[in-house]
Amino acid sequence: MSKSGVTVTPECISKFNELKLGKSIKYIIYKLSDDYTEIVVEDASTDPEWENFQNKILNAKASYKGKEGKGPRYAVYDFQYELEGGEGTR
Length: 90
Description:
By secondary structure, the protein is of the alpha+beta class. Helices cover 24% and strands 31% of the residues. The protein contains two helices and six strands; from the N terminus they run E-H-E-E-H-E-E-E. The strands form two sheets. A four-stranded mixed sheet has the order 1-3-2-6. The chain has a two-stranded antiparallel sheet with strand order 4-5. Strand 4 (61-64) and strand 5 form a beta hairpin.
């Protein structure tokens, strides 16, 4: 547990490992739980479109003390890129 008292759910770790090792997930979006005590998975997707990921982050909402506003998010995105010199794709 961090000094803030916020913990990470086991699903966060398993989804990250699925992205890192299995390469079946393209991105994961994490958020604080409604009671602000845990980091939880909000979305995990195989959609490779950067724009869709970006829109989800930019349009994230959260509610605090009955008011809705922009919501903070943590995210992991598995970028694919070409190396120069024909060395392949990473």
